[in-house]
Amino acid sequence: MIRTIKNRIDKTFSIILKVIFNTFKHITIKTCDHNYIFRNVKIKSNGVNNTIYIGKNVRLHNTIIHISGSNNKIIIGNNITLNEIRFAMYDDYNIINIGNQTYIGPRCHLATCESTSLSIGENCLIAEECQFRTSDSHSIIDAKDGHRLNPAQNIEVGNHIWIGFNCLILKGSKLPDNTVIAAKSIITKSINIHTFDLVGGHPAKVLKNNINWVHNRI
């Protein structure tokens, strides 16, 4: 009985939050069903036509979403629980897409800028305190002619990828399916990673080939 009442309160609170966000925060929240829960979700935004798509069985706890710009999209797939995650989107037409059944640990930071996309595939395991950044946030320029040297670039994370504690995934990085990234690694676009690679280091390099991983300890 107590659990039933609690679930009703959670759902009612979620609906209230949805109305408030849609009315005052320049964000539209679209959901597949009513089986989602928001607890202590803080949304700060400006601009217009920003949208958050929520899949089935999604739980957001202690999450911060900061959007500064217009026409941005956050897509959260099915069967996902996020706790202490920070989303940051700057400028227009950015996309953050999290695939079904992907786990992202506490205190991770997902940031897009300059009309880029951050795509994380299905069934990934991402440990706590990882950062994903599609931009350096500031410009590095050529001292002679002033043209910019560090434009923002997309990040692509495939399916079934294990990323260890405190990794930094930088702009232009591409992680193919079934790879493992060792703890505290820095991933850049310069490294050529293949499926079934183990990668690690500062900056990261391929440490071993022909590996895979499973959730359970065998």
Low-confidence stretches: 19-24
Structural class: mainly beta
What proportion of the residues form beta strands (DSSP E)?
Answer: 35-45%
Largest sheet: 7 strands, parallel
CATH architecture: 3 Solenoid
Span between termini: 39 Å
The radius of gyration is 18 Å
Helix content percent band: 10-25%
Looking at CATH, the homologous superfamily is Hexapeptide repeat proteins
Could you give the order of the helices and strands? Answer: HEEEEEEEEEEEEEEEEEEEEEEE
| Global geometry | flat
Number of helices: 1
Give the total of domains: 1
Strand neighbour order, sheet with most strands: 1-4-7-10-13-16-19
Supply the CATH class.
Mainly Beta
Q: Could you say what the CATH topology is called? A: UDP N-Acetylglucosamine Acyltransferase, domain 1
Count the strands? 23
Q: Residue-averaged pLDDT, rounded?
A: 89
Describe this structure in words.
The protein is mainly beta and 218 residues long. It contains 1 helix and 23 strands. It has a 7-stranded parallel sheet. The longest helix has 23 residues.
